[in-house]
Amino acid sequence: MVVLKLTSFGDSTVIVIPPEMLERLKVCERDELFAIEVPEGYLLTTHDLETHRQVKLAQETMDKYQETLRQLAK
């Protein structure tokens, strides 16, 4: 388990992430992390799961209507 510290920065509160955790996540300063609410609390990830869901849905739709889309593209 990694303990994250909260600290003040101007009018905001920030989370300090230790270097070994940043390395494991393969992120650095100014990268984005996503906090996704799950029953146990929050999942911290580098993947935007909502965008992933939308892309998957778009791919399924394109697969389903492949011939129609091909005809429309003419």
Mean of residue pLDDT values: 90
Oligomer: single chain
Question: Which regions contain 5 or more consecutive residues with pLDDT less than 50?
Answer: none
Query: So how many helices?
Result: 3
- Helix content, binned percent: 40-55%
What's the Cα radius of gyration? 19 Å
In percent terms, what proportion of residues is strand?
A: 25-35%
**What is the tally of beta strands?**
4
Described by the principal axes of the CA atoms, the overall outline is elongated
Topology pattern, helix = H, strand = E: EEHEEHH
* Terminal residue distance: 56 Å
Q: Mind summarizing the main beta sheet?
A: 2 strands, antiparallel
Could you say which structural class the secondary elements and strand pairing correspond to?
A: alpha+beta
Please list the strands of the largest sheet in the order they lie side by side.
1-2
In short:
The chain has three helices and four strands; from the N terminus they run ββαββαα. The protein is α+β, with helices and mostly antiparallel strands and 74 residues long.
Labels describing this entry:
single chain; 74 residues; alpha+beta; two-stranded antiparallel ribbon; 3 helices; 41% helix; 27% strand; elongated
Structural overview:
The protein is an alpha+beta fold and 74 residues long. The protein is 41% helix and 27% strand. The model has no long low-confidence stretch (mean pLDDT 90).
Give the helix/strand layout.
Layout: E1 5-9, E2 12-16, H1 19-25, E3 34-38, E4 41-45, H2 49-64, H3 66-72
Antiparallel strand pairs: 1-2, 3-4
